[in-house]
C-alpha cells in the first residue's frame, strides 16, 4: 500500500483533485490517501499557508498529489508554500510532458518533455530592496546544473527519446547561463541522444514553427516555466497539462494550471491536467500499467465526445470525470 499526501489547495484545486482521486480509485486500490491543507484558505482558517501537520503527512507519504493555490495580493512577506515545498523536499526536477491528449485538441503536433531546474535560477526568492530599487539574486550552481542535466539525460534515454536540447540565454547571460550550457555539453558526452542547444527566444519560436525538432528540453527555472505554458497552450490548454516535481526518491505531482478563481466553484473546470498528474504519479510509483490505463481512458472519453467547456464541450467537471472513470478498467 502506497501512501499519498493529497493537498487540494484553493480555487479549482479541490474540484480537480477530487476528480483525480475518483479516477485513481477506478484503476487501483493500492493507494492510501492522506489529506492535508495548504494555501490561502488554509491561511485564513489557521494563520499558516503550510502547516506543520501537512509537512508531517508529506513525511510519511510516498508521493504528493497537489492541486493549486491562490497567491494572496498585497502580502509582502508571503512565501509561496509550493515553492517552499519544492525547495524543502529538494524536488529539483520539474517535468512537463507536452503533447496533445487527443488529435482534435491543440494547435501543433508537439511531442516534447520540458525538464526544468526547479530550485534556483530566477526563483531563489532572494530579493534585496534599496532606495533605488530591488536586486534579485539569480543563482546558477555547478551542482544544481549538473544534477538537472543528468536527470534529463536519464529521462530521455529511459523514454527512448531521440534528441535533447539545452535551452539557455548564454549570449546575454554569459557566465551564469554559460556555465549551465558548458555543464550540459560535458554531461552529454558519450550519449546516443542527438545533442542540441537553442537560445530561449529561438526556442519559443521553434516550438511553433519547427515543433518536430523539439523533443526533450532541459533548461533553467524561469525559461522552463514560460516555455511550458506556451507548450501547454499549443497542445490544448492549461486544463490538459500535467506536471511532476521530482528527485530520484520523491515526487510531487500537480496540474500546470493555477487555482483559476474565475471559474472556481462552478463545476466547469477541466480535471484532465489533475487526472494526468495522477497518472504521472503512478508511473513514478512503478504502476505504469495503471498509468497507461488512465491515459487511454482520457483519450477515449474525449474521443466519445466528453469535453469540458475549455475543450468546446458542455460536460461538467463531474460528468467528464465519470466518463473517464467508467472507461478505466482495473488491472
Ligand atoms: P490559472 O492557471 O489559475 O488560470 C488561467 C486561465 O486558465 C483562467 O482563465 C482559468 O479559468 C483557465 N484555467 C486554468 N485551469 C483550468 C482548468 N483546469 N479548466 C479550465 N480552465 C482552466 O492562472 P492565473 O489566473 O494566472 O492564476 C490564478 C491563481 O493561481 C493566482 O493566484 C496564481 O498565483 C495561482 N497559481 C498557482 C499555481 C500553483 O498553485 N502551482 C500555478 C499558477 C498560478
Ligand atoms: Mg507557471
Features:
331 residues; Isopropylmalate Dehydrogenase; two-stranded antiparallel ribbon; 2 domains; globular; alpha/beta; 39% helix; binds magnesium ion; binds 1,4-dihydronicotinamide adenine dinucleotide
Task: Report on the architecture of this protein.
This protein starts with a strand and ends in a 5-residue tail after the last helix. It has two domains: 174 residues, Isopropylmalate Dehydrogenase; 128 residues, Isopropylmalate Dehydrogenase (3-Layer(aba) Sandwich). The protein is globular and about 50 Å long. 39% of the residues lie in helices and 20% in strands. By secondary structure, it is of the alpha/beta class. Strands 2-1-3-12-11-4-5-10-8-9 form a ten-stranded mixed sheet, with helices on both faces.
CATH homologous superfamily caption of the largest domain: Isopropylmalate Dehydrogenase
Enumerate how many helices there are, as a single number.
11
Structural class: alpha/beta
Largest beta sheet: what is the strand line-up? 2-1-3-12-11-4-5-10-8-9
Overview in brief:
Helices cover 39% and strands 20% of the residues.
Task: Spell out the blueprint of helices and strands.
Layout: E1 2-9, H1 13-27, E2 31-35, H2 40-46, H3 52-59, E3 63-68, H4 81-88, E4 93-99, E5 111-117, E6 127-130, E7 133-136, H5 142-158, E8 163-168, H6 176-187, E9 194-199, H7 200-209, E10 216-219, H8 221-234, E11 242-246, E12 251-255, H9 272-284, H10 288-303, H11 317-326
Parallel strand pairs: 1-2, 1-3, 3-12, 5-10, 8-9, 8-10
Antiparallel strand pairs: 4-5, 4-11, 6-7, 11-12
Bound molecules: 1,4-dihydronicotinamide adenine dinucleotide and magnesium ion.
The site of 1,4-dihydronicotinamide adenine dinucleotide (NAI) has 21 residues, from loops.
Amino acid at each position: 500500500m502506497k501512501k499519498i499526501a493529497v493537498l487540494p489547495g484553493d480555487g479549482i484545486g479541490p474540484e480537480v483533485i477530487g476528480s483525480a482521486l475518483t479516477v485513481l480509485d477506478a484503476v487501483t486500490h493500492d493507494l492510501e490517501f492522506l489529506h492535508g491543507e495548504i494555501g490561502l484558505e488554509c491561511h485564513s482558517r489557521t494563520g499558516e499557508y503550510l502547516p506543520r501537520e501537512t509537512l508531517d503527512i508529506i513525511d510519511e507519504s510516498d508521493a504528493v498529489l497537489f492541486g493549486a493555490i491562490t497567491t494572496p495580493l498585497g502580502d509582502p512577506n508571503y512565501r509561496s508554500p509550493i515553492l517552499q515545498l519544492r525547495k524543502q523536499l529538494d524536488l529539483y526536477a520539474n517535468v512537463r510532458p507536452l503533447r496533445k491528449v487527443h488529435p482534435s485538441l491543440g494547435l501543433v503536433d508537439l511531442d516534447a518533455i520540458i525538464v526544468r531546474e526547479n530550485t534556483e535560477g530566477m526563483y531563489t526568492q532572494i530579493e534585496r530592496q534599496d532606495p533605488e530599487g530591488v536586486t534579485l539574486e539569480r543563482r546558477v550552481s555547478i551542482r544544481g546544473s549538473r544534477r538537472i542535466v543528468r536527470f534529463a539525460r536519464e529521462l530521455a534515454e529511459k523514454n527512448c527519446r531521440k534528441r535533447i536540447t539545452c535551452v539557455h540565454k548564454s549570449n546575454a547571460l554569459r557566465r551564469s547561463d554559460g556555465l549551465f550550457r558548458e555543464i550540459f555539453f560535458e554531461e552529454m558526452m558519450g550519449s546516443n541522444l542527438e545533442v542540441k542547444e537553442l537560445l530561449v527566444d529561438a526556442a519559443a519560436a521553434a516550438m511553433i514553427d519547427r515543433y518536430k525538432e523539439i523533443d526533450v528540453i532541459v533548461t533553467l527555472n524561469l525559461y522552463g516555466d514560460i516555455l511550458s505554458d506556451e507548450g501547454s497552450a499549443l497542445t490544448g490548454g492549461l486544463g490538459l497539462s500535467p506536471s511532476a516535481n521530482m528527485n530520484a526518491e520523491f515526487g510531487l505531482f500537480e496540474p500546470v494550471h493555477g487555482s483559476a478563481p474565475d471559474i472556481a466553484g462552478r463545476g466547469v473546470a477541466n480535471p484532465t491536467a489533475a487526472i494526468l498528474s495522477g497518472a504521472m504519479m503512478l508511473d513514478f510509483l512503478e504502476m505504469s500499467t495503471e498509468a497507461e490505463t488512465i491515459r487511454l481512458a482520457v483519450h477515449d472519453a474525449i474521443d466519445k465526445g466528453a469535453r469540458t467547456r475549455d475543450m468546446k464541450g458542455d460536460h461538467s467537471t463531474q460528468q467528464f470525470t465519470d466518463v473517464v472513470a467508467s472507461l478505466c478498467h482495473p488491472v
